[in-house]
Amino acid sequence: MSRGWSDSTDAPTWTANETPDTDPLGGLGDLSLRRIGWRRQALLAAAIIGCLTIFLLARVMANNPDVAAQWRASADGYLELADTSVPELKGSLGKELEAIVTADGQVMPFGVLAMAHSARWISHDPSREKMQAVRLATARALEAGQITLRFRDASQVTLLPKPRGYAGLGAMFWLMSAFGMVLFLVGWIVPLVQPNPRNLLYAIMAHAQAAQLLISAVAAVPAMALPSSMVAHESLVRVLLDAVTGAAVVQAAAMHPVRMPGRLWVAACAWGATALYAALAVRGQLINEWWWSQGLLIADGLTCIALLSWVHRRSPHPFAIVVRRFAMVTLATLALLTVAVSLMPMLPPEVQPVATVGPVIWSVFFASIILLVPFISRSQNVMREFAMLAGISTVATSVDLLFVAVFSFSQFTSLTLSLFLALGAYAALRQWLVGQMMGARALTTERMFQHLYRIAREVEARPERAADRMIELLRNVFEPLETERTETRSKQSMVIGNGAALVVPLPNLVDGPSMRGSVVLRFAERGKRLFALEDARLADRILEQLMRALAHDRAVERGRSEERVRIAQDLHDDIGARLLTLMYKAPSTEMEEYIRHTLQDLKTLTRGLAAKSHPLALASAEWKTDITLRLEAVHCQLEWEAEYDQEITLSMMQWSAITRVLRELVSNVIAHAKASRVHVACQLRQGTFTILVEDDGVGTDPAKWSAGLGLGGVRKRAKSLGGTVAWRTRRPHGTICEVQIPHVSTPEA
Q1: Which residues contact 85 (CB under 8 A, 6 or more apart)?
Q2: Which PROSITE patterns match (predicted)?
Q3: How far is CA 324 from CA 22, 305, 312, 327, in A?
Q4: pTM, 2 dp
Q5: The predicted structure's pLDDT at residue 604
Q6: So what's the pLDDT on residue 480?
């Protein structure tokens, strides 16, 4: 069974059409210790390799010869010497550099763009080749140990370059290297946690963009030229890394979150186009090579969006929506940057160096998106905000260049307008992007407690269905598309499948056999958003509050039971003793019989109050005995009928309410009906308890009755059990009362 991209370093993932086959909740629980140790060793080896790579790059750049000088762009597009620690250059401060003279006498014009070390983002092929020739000649001159700087006033200074040292690498080198190291390690962690083709594709993307960040880190070092080996191949390597990333993205979109038919053909086309481009680029057979590379990347982005849209239409999946939105923003940013870079020759000379900032920010933005994908549901706000701000910065830089090139705005005007537009785009897109992960609605406290205490009452009434009631509660809160119960149990709620599913362990809410397993909720809010860590914490708090509510109710019920026993004991000892004495002192036989019946009623009441359980059969016998004695006193005949399809145990509340309903209905017959016969039928079918009391008295139309304490008490007690009461006229005379109470109690074990 295949799995999806991992959303954490310790948990596997599920997708919409998959069910985990082994240990779905324990991450690496199905692995032996030896295999876990092997993965840890592999990750440690990767970390060592990454650190050694950065150290070697830093060592190479620190030992690379350079001229210790600071330059700034002049209004004419030349480099002006701003500061230097080289004694030979002190007299040239403020002069504009015109060319570099190599040891063999070759003169190479050296302008502001020669300091922008990346040729990857130069759209014009002849300009790129010319610039690479200048940089390569400068790099070789520095490595040869001698270089001559010619200034515009015809003065020349010959220098002996020296290694810059680690202090001369600059802060950007270390920041970009650290970011690349993080992405490199994540590219190892994801496939090590879950080795499958999709995670291997993610590793390809992550490692390709980590290499891009390392190249950007080297290019960020302040120097007149980079090492000659990097200058010769830097542009082609960058393009190929981006092309490989694009092909991997297309194949991953065809496989995740839902495997689409024909995914192998899609992958073959993506990788075939990349291989063809690489072969032609390496041989130098492409005309307008930069446009072909940008076209290939944009085509990969459009294909990815189309595949994710197809997946969502066929099987709605919030992960597809989230990734598609990020892909749309990323593609739009790339297209805008492409247009801006293509217009760079139209920029004034003093503005052209600014154009080199956009591609650097783009590299950070694209790498941050790759880093964010496996952790969408677990990422903190800072990670998402960093990715979005990097993208908005790329947009601001691109719009700034477009304003200057197309509308000939001043630098201040274009920068101000671009910042306003970028901030507006950020405000508009932020909720659109993040809303799919975090959810658009907030659960109100009132709604939460309403569901919580309703479920608590139902769990008390039917303990054997506690698991079903908890699942219903989670459905009401999160509104998932799918719900599934599994036998595997976790310690706490957890998000899996990169936010596609939420696993909630089922706690033991009632006494008896322990409840096992967990419930898996897929696709929150009916497939509109992903689950996040906040949802897992909310699920844990909901179940904790449900357990507290049940514990509180049990404690209250114990207190009530103890108080009922005390009251029953007091009634029996005090009132019962007094009535017994009064019975023996009764002046007449009628009075003695009345007190005897009162004692019998008191005995029934105290026994019911003190009893811990009330089996329906026993309660029914007591009801019949009590009603018979009361009706015999007024010379009224009782017809009793009882039919129960199962033996149940009534709770104290149910027994008390039903007993008082029957007693009040019989009292009404005795006091008002003047009946000679009363028919009482008690019936239990499929959990619904029905009481039917029918008399042949002189009853009037129930619609004309005035609401008194007796009738109101019957309605109130029936309503407390969730039941209903209905009165109607009996033909030819008399009254019928029907009481229906659903879900009376649970069968005895």
Answers
A1: 68, 69
A2: HIS_KIN
A3: 30, 6, 10, 5
A4: 0.62
A5: 66
A6: 82
